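User: I'm curious whether this sequence folds into something compact or stays loose and floppy. Could you predict its structure so I can see for myself?
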Amino acid sequence: MTRCALNTISSGAPRRVTVAGICVALLLGGALCCEALTVPDVQIRVGEAAEPERVSAALQVMALLTVLTLAPAILILTTSFVRIVVVLSFLRQAIGTHQVPPNQVLVGLALFLTFFIMTPVWQQVNQNALQPYLDKEISQETAFQSALLPIRKFLFAQTREKDLMLCVKLSGDGKPANRNAVATVPLVTAFVLSELKTAFQIGFLIYIPFLVLDMVVASILLSMGMMMLPPIIISLPFKLMLFVLVDGWYLVVGSLIKSFHTL
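Assistant: Here's the prediction. I'll summarize afterward.
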């Protein structure tokens, strides 16, 4: 037993020494690397006083990157996407199928309907602003103002005057003399409020027939003494059948497209 213990101690000692040696080598190597590395001097300069063009170009690039990060929000809040996706969500909840159609399908359908509705506006932006700017016929500022004209016209056509006056009042700009004097930010905010109100009104109208069907099914089950059976289990097939018989998707999509005022 003494020999075995001595062998164990003798065999374990080199391992401990080896591990300790590796740790010491790593520490020494890290210290040498830290000593060898030199931190470079970091200098941030906007530009030379004699070259203001570079400063302007850098600021334009920064502004472009900022706009690109806000592009999804701009696409959602200045188009018909808000009303469409909210109404489709109300429709799914009214039928009772909380996961069918899935969110990807609803968002995809809302995007394509948005492209369909906004195509006339984007065509005017392309003809009046983008193409002349690419051909170097107009300046960047003129192109931006020309692109805003059809977009603002679309926003004004869908915005309620009450919501617009509220946003203008909260912005502190004072009462505008005409539509051209209204700033774009209050206009977009009022447009979103109007879209949400319109979407909730359409959602209420969609809920009514399905709610009546739920009440009828619940009354029948209660009269039959089947109080423990959830009415949604019985009413869901009838809701689907009613929605298919009246061609619900055709009616909903057609009504959504017609609800937008054309330019």
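Summary: The chain is about 75% helix and 0% strand. The CA atoms of residues 80 and 172 lie 27 Å apart.
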